[in-house]
Specification:
Length: 291
């Protein structure tokens, strides 16, 4: 890394379901009214949000339906089903899946738990940063992979309450730039093109609940190529002996870009997920970048 930076890695990949999203799912399920719990919940996801919600639903006995894009990560799909959730493959990409999810929710009278536009989701994500600040009080900055923004906004809310001088940086794939571009020019986005193997941050839209918070609270926001993200997966495997999925390695890719302005600081990165499917793991660890 160089530049005199000391790095702490937050291993959210060690949580149940292998991702920080189990925090979001648990917070969302426990926030349901008894009537909502009786009717069940539904969500659109590329995997980790669905896994977290399915896990939490199983723990409380709440019926969960998860909508994923066609061709979604097969191992995440299998994990969702393993917790007893109903899985529906619909839509060619995540934004299409969201639209289909709304229609099914109305038909079945289920409560939608959006992966970003849902306050308990952001509150759940914030518990990660509260824990990180306790574990590493010397942190000066944290670099976070950004998809919808729940992780970053939750982190900023916690930092504002317990560590106001902590800087939060975001990084997104060059193949999914909607959030980054909106942060730069102040114009919300919807349905932008997405092409990245890091499905956890493959977001083509901005979201009402996180848009203004991100613009007002991030110290900086950078874009990393998928080649850089793949290299991050390999480096985290070599250094920590943990397998990160694409989004889980994006923090390291971003830190490399931000290193000059973070020189001499203690910086945290978050391995936010470890659910890389076997085929992509073989390709990445062999030196390739999935398309």
């Amino acid at each position: 890394m160089g530049h005199g930076i000391r790095v702490h890695v937050k291993h959210e990949n060690h949580l149940p379901t292998g991702s920080f999203k189990v925090r979001n799912g648990t917070a969302s399920i426990t926030a349901l009214t008894s009537e909502q719990a009786e009717r069940g919940v539904i969500a659109a996801t590329t995997g980790n949000h669905g896994l977290g919600l399915a896990w939490a639903g199983a723990a409380r006995g709440v019926s969960v339906t998860i909508c994923v894009p066609k061709g979604n990560n097969p191992e995440k799909n299998a994990g969702i089903r393993s917790f007893g959730a109903t899985l529906i493959e619909v839509g060619d990409r995540y934004d299409d899946t969201v639209v289909a999810c709304r229609a099914i929710a109305e038909q079945e009278q289920r409560t939608i738990v959006h992966s970003t536009n849902h306050r308990p989701v952001v509150a759940g994500a914030g518990t990660m940063m509260a824990e990180f600040c306790e574990q590493a009080p010397e942190l000066a900055a944290v670099v976070i992979a950004l998809g919808g923004g729940s992780q970053a906004v939750g982190a900023m809310a916690v930092a504002g309450a317990v560590k106001p001088d902590l800087q939060i940086f975001a990084v997104q794939s060059q193949g999914a730039t909607a959030q980054h571009d909106a942060w730069r020019d102040g114009m919300p986005r919807a349905g932008e093109p997405v092409q990245t193997f890091a499905e956890g941050i493959a977001t083509g839209s901005t979201y009402e609940l996180t848009f203004e918070a991100l613009r007002g609270g991030l110290a900086d926001f950078v874009l990393a190529s998928d080649d850089m993200i793949a290299q991050g997966v390999r480096d985290l495997w070599s250094i920590t002996h943990n397998l990160a999925e694409g989004s889980g390695a994006t923090g390291l890719a971003g830190l490399r870009l931000l290193a000059p302005q973070l020189a001499g600081k203690t910086v945290g990165i978050v391995m936010c997920g470890g659910n890389l499917d076997a085929a992509r793991a073989v390709e990445v660890l062999s030196g390739g970048t999935p398309t």
